[in-house]
Each structure stands twice: as C-alpha cells, then as structure tokens.
Design goal:
The protein has helices spanning 29-32, 34-41, 56-68, 88-100, 122-127, 131-151, 157-160, 162-176; strands spanning 8-9, 20-26, 45-49, 72-80, 107-113, 116-120. By secondary structure, the protein is of the alpha/beta class. Strands 1-3-2-4-5-6 form a six-stranded mixed sheet, with helices on both faces. Strand 5 (107-113) and strand 6 (116-120) form a beta hairpin. The longest helix has 21 residues, at 131-151.
C-alpha cells in the first residue's frame, strides 16, 4: 500500500503560510485515489478542507484573504465527483477568486470519478451553481447523443439498407407536398 503524506487543514493554518503553487482537496481524496492525489500534489503545498466539519463561509473568507495577499501562483482543486459536500469547494474557490480579482486562469479543477481523475472547466463550475441553465442545455445533450448514434457505423438505417433509404426518401418527398 502506498503511503501518502496527509494534507494540512486549510482553516487551521495562518494565511501567511500560503504561497507558490497549492493543491486544495477534500479530506478523503487521498484515500479515494492515492495515485491521482500524489500526482497533483507534486511540487505543491497541499491543504484540505472538510465541509462536514466547517461551514463553507470559513473557507470563502480564508480564500479571499489568501488570494488578496497575492502570494499564490496557481491553485489546483481536487474533489470527489458526486459528493454534495465536496462540490462546495470548487464553487467557493471560484467565488473567492472572482470577489478579489484573482486570475482564474491560474486555477484548475479536478475531480475523482470511476477510478480516474477528470479536469473540470471553470465554466462547468459556474454552471453547477445555476440549475436553470443546466436544465436548458439537457435537451441539447440528448440531441448530441442521438446524432452520435445515427452517425456511428451501425447507426443510420438508411446507410445499411438501400430499400430503407428509398422509403425514407419517398416519405420526405410525400411530406414536402
């Protein structure tokens, strides 16, 4: 079993400690995927946050101060996908960065899911805060899936069977007049 050095609790550390490149993670990501945790923490000062133990406002206030001091170069955020607690961390990182003008190009978001690590865009983090916007794009996702199926090798019946193609063509002509 691989031994991974535990991260420090971001809330209990003085703001003057934060500098350079950081990794902010949920407390259990190193248990979920030690390899991804180790890879993303390489060359970074690692801190964790536990939303089950601390109110999210504490993280937001701390991040605003950390960003305002301008000692942090880059920040990676690593959480467990699907966790209602962990999903709060990237939301608060984004909010704090916007509040104090920290360059969001210096923030990268990652989540652990299905044994792998996935990079998540800033736009996805923003959309996760707006359910009505997600609801509006869901029909397009379904349409893209149908298009993908139809364009696959065995997808569109008109390409497999010339008889079927003639029927489709005939029905198009009949509906046009």
């Amino acid at each position: 079993m691989q031994v991974v050095e535990p991260s420090r609790d971001i809330i209990s550390v003085n703001v003057n400690v934060f500098k350079g490149d950081l990794l902010l993670t949920c407390t259990y990501s190193q248990d979920v995927n030690p390899e991804a945790y180790k890879s993303l923490s390489e060359g970074r000062n690692v801190f964790s946050f536990c939303p089950e133990l601390h109110h999210l406002d504490k993280l937001g206030f701390k991040l605003c101060t950390i960003f305002r001091l301008k000692r942090v170069e880059t920040l990676y955020v690593l959480t467990k996908d699907g966790s209602p607690h962990s999903m709060q961390i990237p939301l608060m990182v984004q909010e704090a960065a916007e509040d104090v003008g920290f360059d969001k190009a210096n923030i990268r978001y990652f989540c652990l899911e299905g044994g792998g690590v996935h990079e998540i865009s800033d736009l996805t983090i923003r959309k996760a805060r707006h359910y009505s916007e997600i609801e509006q794009v869901l029909p397009y996702a379904k349409l893209e899936k149908v298009t993908e199926i139809l364009r696959s090798e065995n997808g569109c019946p008109s390409k497999r069977n010339s008889c079927c193609a003639k029927k489709i063509q005939t029905s198009k002509c009949n509906t046009m007049f």
